[in-house]
Design brief:
Blueprint lengths: L3 E12 L2 E12 L3 E5 L6 H8 L7 E6 L2 E2 L5 H8 L2 E4 L11 H12 L4 H14 L15 H12 L6 E5 L7 H18 L2 E5 L3 H7 L2 E6 L4 E6 L1 H4 L5 H7 L8 H4 L1
Parallel strand pairs: 3-8, 3-9, 6-7, 7-8
Antiparallel strand pairs: 1-2, 1-4, 4-5, 9-10
Helix pairs in contact: 3-4, 3-5, 4-5, 6-7
């Protein structure tokens, strides 16, 4: 594997004195699509929020490009944050702004581009996600799948090195979900970005993941890591059951 873009060591996450997950250890390589999977309530979204600085870690460390994110001075942390792009579960678009205004917002805040350059970049980002010509539409005027793609256009506005997705397929029909998966693969291939995705959608996991980590809500730690297709044949029955929609094909009882 290429030297890791993200390194997580002995990480415990949770709220105040309650640890949702303990002793998480994994690396995400440059340009890799890495999926965080597990049953509902296992701490997937808590891990993502901790990785992007919305929540403090209880202990342990997260490093980006060899720099410790947790203990970095505010100016260094802000610089690292500007290298992130985040697509939240609901798209998180400003409802009172057009798609063009939503995507232009980070460009106006964090760059010194002229308005004409910003407009050109916005149109480019919209075209990349298949929304050319929709810049003047408001989020309420487009479908759920289009809102997710618009959210992705905003997430890539600043050409981030790392993209984070929180349940990107939530609320989408199978066709829209598949199109979003294909778009994520295209974004990674065209930009070289490292991608971290939180999801429990099996179709998406098998379509996009180079590797995945399984968070187990019984032991409150990670119990497997690897390519999802290889994990189907792993020695961990809970992981096999999760990846087979609640049925473990290697179980004698299930075979009977």
């Amino acid at each position: 594997m290429i030297s890791p873009k993200i390194t997580v060591e002995n990480l415990s996450i949770g709220y105040e004195d309650y640890a949702v997950m303990n002793n998480l250890n994994f690396e995400v390589g440059n340009g890799e699509i890495f999926v965080v999977m597990g049953a509902s309530g296992c701490g997937k979204s808590t891990l993502l929020r901790t990785m992007i600085g919305l929540q403090d870690a209880l202990s342990g460390s997260i490093s980006y490009g060899g720099k410790n994110f947790n203990n970095a001075p505010e100016d260094e942390k802000s610089e690292m944050l500007r290298s992130f792009g985040v697509l939240y579960q609901g798209g998180a678009l400003w409802s009172a702004m057009t798609l063009e205004e939503n995507i232009a917002l980070p460009l106006r805040r964090f760059t010194k581009f002229s308005e004409s350059d910003i407009k050109e970049l916005v149109n480019l980002k919209l075209a990349l996600v298949g929304l050319r010509g929709f810049g003047n539409f408001y989020p309420s005027e487009i479908s759920g799948g289009m809102r997710k793609r618009a959210g992705l256009a905003r997430a890539i506005a600043l050409d981030p090195q790392i993209l984070f997705f929180d349940e990107p397929s939530a609320g989408l029909d199978p066709v829209s979900s598949r199109r979003l998966d294909e778009l994520i693969l295209q974004m990674r291939d065209s930009t070289g970005a490292t991608v971290v995705i939180v999801t429990h959608e099996l179709a998406s996991i098998f379509t996009v993941a180079d590797r995945a980590i399984y968070l187990d809500n019984k032991t409150r730690t990670q119990t497997a890591i690897g390519n999802p297709k290889e994990l189907l044949k792993s020695g961990n029955a809970d992981v096999r059951t999760f990846l087979n929609r609640g049925v473990d094909p290697l179980s004698t009882q299930d075979k009977l």
